[in-house]
Amino acid sequence: MSRTTITSRTFNQNVTEAKRTALEHPVFITDRGNITHVLLNIDHYKEITRNSANIIDLLAIPDAEDIDLEVEPLKDNILKPGDFS
Q1: Which of 2, 13, 48, 68 has the fewest beta carbons under 10 Å from its own?
Q2: CA-angle at 9, arms to 19 and 2, nearest 5°
């Protein structure tokens, strides 16, 4: 997949051209030499996020009730006031 990289200054000066280019492929926008943003058309965005699991799916553990969880009790001295002197 091809891509275009432009500076944030160029982006600000010609947003229309950046949007037009993003219809073809991602446009990477740099700030002081570092890529900070990516401009995508909405169809490409939907395509790459379509199969992403949501938080409920990520947290779901089949048969979680069958898991034995042993937790050691906290030690009494774990909550000490900080010394800021």
Answers
A1: 68
A2: 45
Residue with tokens 């909405």: 42
Element spanning 36, H or E: strand 34-39
Amino acid residing at 50: R
As a whole number of angstroms, the distance between CA 59 and CA 28 comes to: 32
* Nearest residue to 12 (alpha-carbon basis) of 31, 34, 33, 35: 31
Report how far Cα 75 is from the mean position of its chain's Cα atoms: 37
Q: What is the pTM of this model?
A: 0.58
First to last CA, the chain: 58
pLDDT in tens, the chain (85 residues): 688 999 999 999 999 999 999 999 999 999 999 999 999 999 988 888 887 777 777 677 676 667 777 878 777 666 667 777 7
